[in-house]
Design a protein that fits this description.
Order of helices and strands: HEHEEHEHHEHEHEHEEEHEHEHEEHEHE
CATH architecture of the largest domain: Alpha-Beta Complex
Helix content: 25-40%
Strand order of the largest sheet: 1-8-2-3-7-4-6-5-9-10-11
Bound molecules: threonylcarbamoyladenylate, magnesium ion
Largest sheet: 11 strands, mixed
Length: 362
């Protein structure tokens, strides 16, 4: 679209700063909720990433989400609710395991895919599937907004399709200014990666469709008698069960390569590759753990915190990918993380960002 054409579709995006306990916050949330009720688009913070919300019953509003994001229409949206009874209105009666999962992990970063009730949600939300993903976000501003709007809120991550998910209101603005009605700015999100998406394969089997904030280990510890199927099984099928998993995601504009292996070898490899790229005249970036950060000499070297604190790396990943873009870095190398705990979700997102370009050193 040329500049003039783009300007024709631009509207003003309101920013509401919110902070719990501040008198102005209640008024801001009331205004934002009214925009949702009127069929508008409002981005809001959750404990994972910022979401782009619309009334999930309103097809025109939900269509607005797909348009603003440039999202393929066959990728269903997660519906956010503020109470379990609100979820019960949207989905068919579910087995005790689903009820126990809600009780144990809501509010929190767990999306549960369940058979949807007819005529409760816009068909665009489910992209024609017979199921819907539901979650109750663990963020006071998100819960207050959903409660005030008094409707189920469909919300994908509030980024342009293909860009890293936003962990700050500034990231939302960067991608969607003029395309959405408003942003509830509640500061930085917590986990930094999207929720874990699960479905129940049967009454005692939890199938992870997308790894996330609630780790496989946490699910196993909470439900020792359940069978837990990892994300790999779901992804290896010809048609991914979580439609979003098939799209290129989170990609930085520069070419990202992950390097896996013994830390000293990884560091030596990256140093050589950075040097070669510099000689070719390319701008270089490195994303590494704090322990080895001083070792690298790229144009932009970013730390994702200590390798002993993968939660910190998860929290920083998307902002780092955006920083490489802002600096117009052409070639990026990243150290791999160990795939336990949140490391599984972290490596899932990093591999996607790298288009699966992974060098495995012996
Ligand atoms: O943490 C999160 O989950 C964030 C915040 C905003 O809540 N939301 C988010 O939404 O990541 P989105 O749209 O970026 O990702 C939703 C994922 C996609 O991979 C989609 O395919 C999957 O959930 N999904 C949604 N409904 C589904 C369904 N009925 N069956 C299988 N997968 C589904
Ligand atoms: Mg997303």
């Amino acid at each position: 679209m040329d500049k003039q054409g783009l300007n024709d579709t631009m509207n003003k995006t309101t920013i509401w700063q919110v902070q719990l306990g501040e008198p102005a916050t209640a008024l801001s949330l009331k205004e934002a909720a009214a925009v949702l009720q009127d069929g508008g688009l409002v981005a809001f913070p959750t404990e994972t990433v910022y979401g782009l919300g619309a009334d999930a019953r309103n097809t025109a509003a939900v269509q607005g989400i797909f348009t603003a994001k440039g999202r393929p229409s066959d990728n269903p949206l997660i519906v956010h609710i503020a109470s379990i009874s609100q979820a019960d209105e949207l989905v068919q009666p579910y087995p005790p395991l689903a009820a126990q999962l809600m009780k144990r992990f809501w509010p929190g970063p767990l999306t549960i895919v369940l058979p949807v009730r007819e005529d409760k949600l816009s068909p665009l939300v489910t992209a024609g599937l017979a199921t819907v993903g539901i979650r109750m976000p663990d963020h006071p501003a998100a819960l207050a907004l959903i409660e005030r709007a008094a409707c189920p809120v469909a919300a994908p991550s509030a980024n342009r399709s293909g860009r890293p998910s936003p962990t700050l209101a500034a990231h939302v603005l960067e991608d969607l200014e003029g395309r959405i009605d408003g942003i509830v700015d509640g500061g930085a999100t917590g986990v930094g990666l999207e929720s874990t998406v699960i479905e129940l394969a049967d009454d005692r089997t939890i199938r992870i469709l997308r790894p996330g904030g609630i780790t496989q280990e946490t699910l196993r510890a909470a439900f020792p008698h359940a069978v837990i199927e990892g994300a790999d099984a779901a992804e290896s099928e010809a048609a991914p069960r979580s439609p979003g998993m098939k799209y290129t995601h989170y990609a930085p504009q520069g070419e990202l390569t992950l390097v896996q292996g013994e830390p000293a070898k990884v560091a030596a490899y990256i140093r050589v590759e950075v040097e070669k790229a510099k000689q070719r005249g390319e701008t270089t970036g490195v994303l590494a753990f704090e322990e080895r950060i001083a070792f690298y000499e790229g144009d932009l070297v970013l730390s994702c915190g200590s390798e002993n604190l993968l939660e910190e790396a998860a929290h920083r990943l998307y902002a780092a990918l955006r920083e490489f873009d802002a600096a117009k870095v052409q070639r990026i190398w990243a150290e791999c993380a160990p795939e336990h705990g949140i490391g599984e979700a972290l490596m899932n997102r990093m591999a996607k960002a790298a288009g699966n370009r992974i060098i495995r050193l012996q």
